[in-house]
Automatic annotation (TrEMBL):
This is Phosphate ABC transporter substrate-binding protein. Residues 1-16 form the signal peptide. It comes from the Bacteria. The keyword Signal applies. It comes from Pseudohongiella spirulinae. Keywords: Signal.
């Protein structure tokens, strides 16, 4: 009985992870195939300007009031929009980094991804198509 309960819990956790409403994506032409949680955090918080292979990265945000933004920062970085604003205020004030460029929606991000392999962003899982590659699922 205890083993059955444990297996059910494991399956539900696995399904919850694989059904995350937001995913981190790069261009299909990018050499990057996957990223760890720490790498995603470092890139989206401005601590790293490079992919793990050493190539430059340009992280792109969604609008602060969008569902994707709220879900991404909550699930991948455990931050609220207010905490994200505070973080970027500190990073900007100290000169360590500039706030991320923002796109208006998922379609605008996909368009950017097709133009530049350095771009990384996050979007709704349902927006993923053959021109982009999922590299992290919160």
């Amino acid at each position: 009985m205890l083993i059955t309960a444990f297996l059910l819990l494991q399956c539900s956790q696995t399904n919850a992870q694989s059904n995350s409403p937001v995913v981190v994506v790069v261009a299909d032409a990018s050499a990057v195939t996957s990223l760890s949680l720490q790498q995603v955090q470092d890139i989206f918080l401005g601590y790293s300007q490079f992919f793990p292979d050493g190539s430059p990265v340009i992280a792109v945000d969604q609008p602060e009031n969008s569902e994707s933004y709220i879900e991404f920062y909550a699930s991948a970085l455990d931050m609220t929009p207010a905490q994200v604003r505070s973080h970027w205020a500190r990073m900007t004030f100290t000169g360590r980094a500039r706030p991320l460029r923002s796109v208006t929606n998922d379609a605008a991000l996909i368009e950017l991804l097709q133009q530049d392999v350095r771009i990384i962003g996050y979007l709704a899982r349902r927006a993923v198509n053959q021109h982009i590659k999922v590299v992290f699922e919160p």
